[in-house]
Fold each of these.
Amino acid sequence: MSEARAVTDASFAADVLASEKPVMVDFWAEWCGPCRAVSPILDQIASEYADKIDIVKMNVDENSDIPMKYQITSIPTMKVFKGGEVVKTVIGAKPKPALVADLQEFLA
Amino acid sequence: MRELVIIGSGPAGYTAAIYAARASLNPLVVASSVEFGGDLMNTTDVDNFPGFPEGVMGPELMMSMQKQAERFGAEIMYDDVVSVELSGPVKKITLGSTEVVEAKTVIVASGSAYRKLGIPDEDRLSGYGVSWCATCDGAFYREKTVAVVGGGDSAMEEATFLTRFADKVYVIHRSENLRASAAMLERAKNDSKIEFILNATVDHIYGDDLVSGIGIVDTESGAETTLDVSGLFIAIGSDPRTHVIHGQLDLTPEGTIAVEGRTSHTNLEGVFAAGDVVDPSYRQAITAAGSGCVAALDAQHYLEALTQ
C-alpha cells in the first residue's frame, strides 16, 4: 500500500484541518482494487511535490466519522483541504498525468 | 525495436503475453497505470474459470496470470497508451510518460469500458451515489436501500454482493428477459433482500449532493414511479474501448475491432486484436484468454514469415 502517512478520525483536525500546507486525503480501503492501483501514483506525486502539498490516507474501514461527515460514498476519493475547507474533490483512480492536471492549482 | 507490444492486461493481454514470452518474443505489456489486470480486478469470486474448483478471486486470478507471463520474460509497464501509429512495418506506441515504443507487431487487447445510462445527472452524481463498482463502493451502503440496473451476470453479481451491506436491493431491467446465467440468476432470485423490477427503465436520478431516489418508467404502461434509494449501481454492459485506434483499424457495426474469421488479424499487417475489444457477444474471461492465445500465435507466425 501507499507510503503516505495514515490519519484517523481522532487525528484529522490536527493533521489535516489545521495544516498550513494544502493536504490531500486519500480515502481508501484494503479491498478496493482501484485504491491499490492509484496509491503508488499518489506516492510519486507526494514525493515530487513535497514542498507544495501533503498527501495522507484514511482507511474508511477503520474510520467512519470523517468519511461520513464528508459524504464519502465511493473510493478512492481524494479531497484536498486548505485552511480547514475542502477545495477540491477527485473521485476514482486516474493515471498520473490526469491527477497532476486535476491538482495543478496546488502543485504549480 | 521490439518484436511485440501488447496493449492491455486483462485475460486476453496476459494470455497473449504468456504465449508470446514462451515463444521468446520478449513482449512488452502496456498494462495501464490504474486499470491493470482489467475488469476482473473489480470482481470478487470468479466461479466459472476452469481449473479452480472452489472458485478464485478476480484480482488473484489476474495476479497469477501476470506472474505466469513474467516467469517467461514478459515485461509489464504500468503506463497508458496515449496514441498509436499502426500502419507500416514499424508500429509506434506513445505512452503517458511521452516515451515512444517501436515494435514490429502489436496486439490490441484494450477491453471495454462501462456503459452509461445516458440520463440527466448521471455524471453529476457519479461518485455521490451513482457507481459502476459494487465491490469498491458497496460498503458505504450499510443498512440502506440501493438499486442495480441491468440484467446480465455482472448485474446479478453486483446485486448479490450488495446484499452483504444493504437492507434492500432492487434489480431493475428493461425487459423480462434476463441475460444472466441460470446459476447467477438463481442465487439472486433466492435472496430475500433482492427484489426484481422488470420491464422498467431508469430515466431520472434525484438528489442534490447525494443520490436520494430514482425515477423509473414501466416500459409497458408508461407509468412513472419514484423509488427512494441511496445508491444506483449501473451494470448495463460495456462498449469496446477503441478510441486509441480510431481511424486506423476497421471496426464492425457493433463497434468492435474487425478481425478475419476466427483469427486475430486486423486490416493492418502486423496488428492483431483480442479479447472484449473484438467480441460483441461472449465477453467472458475464458473466451478473452482464448482469443489472446490466438493473437500471440498469429503474431508469432507473422514474425516468423518476416524473417524468411
Amino acid sequence: MKTKKIIYIIVSIAILIFADPVSADNNLPYAGEPSSFVISSLQEGQTTPITCTATLTDPDGCEEITGAAAVMFRSNIAGYTNCAANGRNCYRNISCSYNPSFDPCESGVGDLTVGYDCVANVQFYVDPTDAGQYEATDWSCEVTPADGGGPGSPAIFNAEMPSNIALDTDPLEIAYGTIPLGEISATAAVMSVINSGNRSLDIQLSGTDMICPAGTDIPVGNAQYNTFDFEYDVSGLTLTDTLATLTMELPQPSDSTPTVEADTFWELQMLATGVSGSCSGEVVFNALADD
Amino acid sequence: MKFKKFLIIGCIIFGCSLACSVHAGFGVSPSDVNNYNLLPESSFEKVLYLNRSDAEQSLFISMTVDDGLVRDWITSDRADHFVMPAGAISFPVTIKVNVPVDAEMGNYRGTIKFVANTGDPANPGSAQAVLGAIAKYNLKVTNTNITDYRVESMNLLRIEKGEPLSLSLRIRNLGNTAVAPTRVHIDIMSIADAENILESHDITQFDESVPAFMKTEIMMHTAENINLEPKSYRAEVTVYQDEKKLRKEKMILEIFEVGSLRQGILTGMELKNNLMEIDKPVSLTAEFKNTGHESLDSKLLLDIYDKNNRLVGKFQSEPVKTQPTQTAVYDVSLMPRKSGEYIIKGVVEYDGKVSEGKEINASGFYSTRSLVVVISLGIVNLLLLIGLMFVSKKVFAKRF
C-alpha cells in the first residue's frame, strides 16, 4: 500500500515536470535593442500618449512571448522602478502590445525577436527634464517581457521629457459691463489664469485701447489690474501696450483637479466725455517660466 | 435725461454665449532653446510645438524674437505671422540659430514669444483675453571644440550568409563637432552558450558621421563577410570613443540563407474578364506574397503585347509596403482601345529584384451594342455620301 502511494507521488511529480513545457527548460525572455523612446512635445491641459518601443527576445522563439509591461519614471525618483505611481513622475502598469512593423514575430522559422509598444498617457503636468529643476535628469522607460514561465529580464531606455509653457483663462473675456461716463467700474471683473502646462509660471500682460464705434476710444491705460481686489489708482497696476510681468502663484500642477489657477482683478475708468457706443478691446496674457 | 449720462458698454450675454463658445488653452513645448556649445559660424535647429486642447478654430499666431543682441541670429521656418489651422492640436515651428563668424564669446539669453489670436471680435463692453506662450533661449558661444554625444539606440541588422555585419546607431550629438565612434566591437556567440565566442569583429572605418547638434542614424559594416551558418546568434556590441566604453548591448544576430531575407512571389494575376470590351475599363488583380523576413516595398509592372508580340502598353503601380508573410494586392484598371488578341505580362519589382512573371491572354472586342452603333454610323455615312453624289450630279447637270 505504502509503495503504491510512493509510486503515485513519483508519477505525479513526473507528470507535472514533463507535462508543462515551460517549467522544464524554459528560457525567460529579455528586452533590449533596437528600441525607440523619443518624446517630441506635450499637449496643454490634457494627456499625451508617449510610446516606448523595445525589442523582446525569447531564446525559445518569439512566439513564446506572452506580453510585456512597462514603468515610466523620472530617472532620479525615489524607489526607481518601484516608484509610487503618480502623474508627476511615475507611471506604472503600462500595458504593451505587439508592434509587427517594428519587428514582426515570424512563427515557426526560429525567429527569436519581436517588437512591442508600451504606451503611457502622460499628464500635462509631468515633470520636465529639459529645463527647470530636473534638467540634470531624464525620463526612463523600463520594459519587462514575459512568457509562460513568468516575467523575464527588463531593459531601460532614456529620453528627455519636454517642458510645456501653457495657460488658459476662465472666462475668455474681461467683462467690464456698463460704466457711466467719468466713473470707474463698480465692481472688479475677475479673470482666472490657469496653468495648463508643466512649469511654474509668471504672467506678462499687455493690452490695447478699447475701440468704440463712435467718438473717442478708451486708452489702454484706463484699465488697471492686480492679483487682488484693489482700489483703482491706489493699488491697481496700469495696463500698457508693452509687456509687464505680473508675479502670480502658478506653480507646476500636481494633479489635473483641482486646477492650478490664480485670479486677476480688472477695473476700467470711463472717459468723462466723448465716448459713444459699446467698446471692446484685447488683453494679452503671456505665460513665461518663472524659474 | 439720466439715461443720457450713461454710456452703455453692453455686455450682451446672449452674444457672448455665441462668441465665447470655445474654451481652449495655448502652449509651447518644448519651451527652451538652449545650446551651450556654439562655435562662431555654427548653426542648429530646434522644433517647438505650439499646442492647444481645443482645435475647433484657426489661430492667428504672431511670433516675436525679443530685441536682444542675437535677434538676427534667430529665424524660423514660419513667417512672423502665420495660421495654426483648425483641427491641429499641435503645430511645429522650427527655430534656426545661425551664429555669425564674428560672434563674441559669451552667453546670450532672451525670449521667443508666440501670441495666439482667434480673430473673433470681443463682445461689446469686454476685453478679450488673448493667450501667449513665451519660450526662452539661452545660447553660449565658445571657441572650444567639444565632443559630446550619446548612442541612443542600436540595431544589428539581419543579414544573409556571406554578407558583412551591418549595424545602425542612432546618435544624438550634443557637441559642436561632427562625431562618429572610434571603434565598434562585436562578439558573436551561440544562443545556447553565451560564453563561447564564435567570432569577433571590429569596425574602425566609418563612412558617415553625425553633424554638430544633430540626432541621426548612421550605418556601419564590418570589412569582412560573415560565414556562420544561417540561424540566430547572440551578439554583444560595444561602442567606443577612444578607450571609453560609450554603450554595450546584448542583441540577437539573425543570419539567413542566401537570397531568403528579402524575397517574394507573384502568386496570382487575373483579369476580371479575358474578353475585354473596347473603351471599357476592365479590372486586373495581382497578388504578391512577401516570403522573406524583412518588409518590402514592391510595385507591379505590366507589359501589354499584341498578337505580333509588339509592345503596345506599359503600366507601373504605386509602391506597396508588405510585412513578412503578408500579401500585397494590386488592383489595376485596363482599357483596350483596339480589338485583337493581347498578352499581358506581369512581374513585381522589389528590393532591386524582379519576381517570376505571370501572363494572361486576353482579347479586345467590340460589344454588340458598339457594333450596332458602328454599323449604323456606317450606313448613315453611306446614305449621306449617296445623297451628296445625287445632289452634285443634279447641280452639275443644270450648269452644263
